[in-house]
Amino acid sequence: MEKSIEFLAGAIEMLNQITQYSVNKPKEYGRLSRWIKALYESDFEYEEYLGKKYLILQMPNQKQVKKSKKGETYTCMFCGHFHLHGADNGHRVPHCHNGIVLEKITHKDGTDLYLKDGYIIRMDI
Cβ atoms within 10 A of the Cβ of 5, count? Predict the structure, then answer.
């Protein structure tokens, strides 16, 4: 119950912050509500690499990415945005800069993942 109340307070604060920087509020509310739901349900993957645990950011549409050499990720759990990265799997420095950015997220198994550590890009097959 404590997590629910604390999380709801944080979600309300996130939604309130949208009004300060968003031009397209309906689109932003939809994006943020999906992000908040995924965070609350701890619906994200991570993996250990060289002794650290990293968020996995999936990158869709491999054919398109190979042509352009860059691709857009699915929603980042640290900031709720998509990121543009090179078309290779592997560790990346985070591109979370605008709006609300979480320094730490916690998986449902209790594992903490930190923005400062970056994330791992994994392309869909």
Answer: 9
